[in-house]
Amino acid sequence: MKIVKVETIRNSALPNVLWVQLHSEDGLIGLGETYYLPSAVEAVIHDLLASFVLGRSDSEIESIWDQAFSYCNFFGYAGAEMRALSALDIALWDVLGQRTGQPIYTLLGGMVRDTIPVYNTCVDTELHDDAEAFVSRPAELARDLLSEGIKAMKIWPWDRFAPRLKSTAALGPAGYTAMGPSGSFISARDLDSGLNIVKAIRDAVGKDIEIIIEGHSRWDLNCAIRIGKVLEPFDILWMEDMMKPDSVIDLSRLVTETRVPQSVSERLFTRYAYRQVLEARAAHIIMPDLIWTGGITEGRKIAILADTFHLPIAPHDCTGLVALFANLHLCASSTNAMLLECVRGFYRGWYKWVYTNNIEIAEGHASFPTMPGLGTRLKPDFLADPRTSIRVSVPGDASVIV
User: Fold this and answer.
1) Helical residues (DSSP H) of 76-126, grouped into ranges
2) What strand order describes the sheet that includes 29-35?
3) Which segments in the chain show pLDDT lower than 70?
4) CA-CA distances (angstroms) from residue 312 to 263, 284, 330, 332, 341?
5) Which of 125, 168, 333, 348 could form a disulfide with 105 if both were Cys (CB 3.0 to 4.6 A apart)?
6) How is domain 106-367 classified at the CATH fold level?
């Protein structure tokens, strides 16, 4: 069946998220999603990528991906273009799953596990002040997560000591850190202050909970090494993006000069970037973001590539539920899936407003969806919300906003 309509959907209450719906001629609707700079991504979809999809068979996923990527590659692909292609790709897989009556993971080779363990990324939300809590009351937060069955937590104890821009406009899109230049100095006092958070968690719950250290690329190599060395006695599960992931040579130095496993990186686009990381021995854990790096089509290839180096994947998600469900399908079908990232304030909060089917988590493990396709849809009430806008492209016509 042919794709006859491409929709992009935005809502001002969630200003960083862009949804995509692909309509097939027999009425099936595939859902995709991406995050960050939605105006730019929306323009790429309607000005360019819709022409690669409209009128095409909804089963030509690999061909559409390759042709669209090849065109974008001519001008430079690693930005809005890949976010747009990622969202379209996930929507195409959703249509294919619905058409075949199978969850996407079945089309990827079938389930290799019954559940996947989750960790909680400790951001502040309306329901949980987890980012504030890990600084001011880390022991209490760790006990609270354990009481829910969650046995791994991601925190960023040293971000507050990194350089910051003065303008409030420099707040990162997730709202939990202000961006600035890479820190080239961290004092012994600040080093200890961050480490005291880790100590408090270990003193409170021992090794009942895994600790993950997020760096948000706020540090240079020397500071990253210094942080890594003080963390070595505390059996950290991994350090993540302690510095910008642009130089695999420098990342490999961090791997060599610290004993804490290194995770790299949601910020990388396509398997070609991960190939460089893997060949340089610059990571222990591979962390693709499926709504940025190329969707399920590319995520599957990255997972297989990591597996050839005997390394796990731990897909990134601190965004929307489509990204999380795409991760579920990849983890269900990948033998080297390690952990699933979640934010409890999201799946207990705004996900319930936007999506028909939420993630199911029990005793620190996520179940896999059983519905055909992706496993969730946008709620009619969300689509009808007055803050929601929809832009449409159809064959032969300029896009319109409704």
Assistant:
1) 80-100, 104-107
2) 29-35, 17-24, 3-11, 388-393, 400-401
3) 166-179, 397-402
4) 10, 8, 12, 13, 14
5) 333
6) TIM Barrel (3.20.20)
The structure tokens listed for 101 are 């009556």
Helices 80-100, 295-308: axis angle to 10 degrees equals 100
CATH number (1.20.1420.30, 3.30.830.10, 3.30.390.10, 3.10.180.10) of 3-101+378-401 reads: 3.30.390.10
Q: 215, 243 in Cβ contact below 8 A? A: yes
The pLDDT of residue 42: 98
Nearest to 88 by CA among 50, 120, 114: 50
Residue 306's closest CA among 330, 323, 333, 283? 283
Instruction: Give span(s): CATH 3.20.20.120, the chain.
Output: 106-367
C-beta separation of 318 from 16 below 8 A: no
Residues 18-71 pLDDT 10s: 999 999 999 999 999 999 999 999 999 999 999 999 999 999 999 999 999 999
Question: 165 is written with which tokens?
Answer: 């821009």
Average pLDDT, the chain: 95
Joined together, the tokens standing for residue 279 give 């060949």
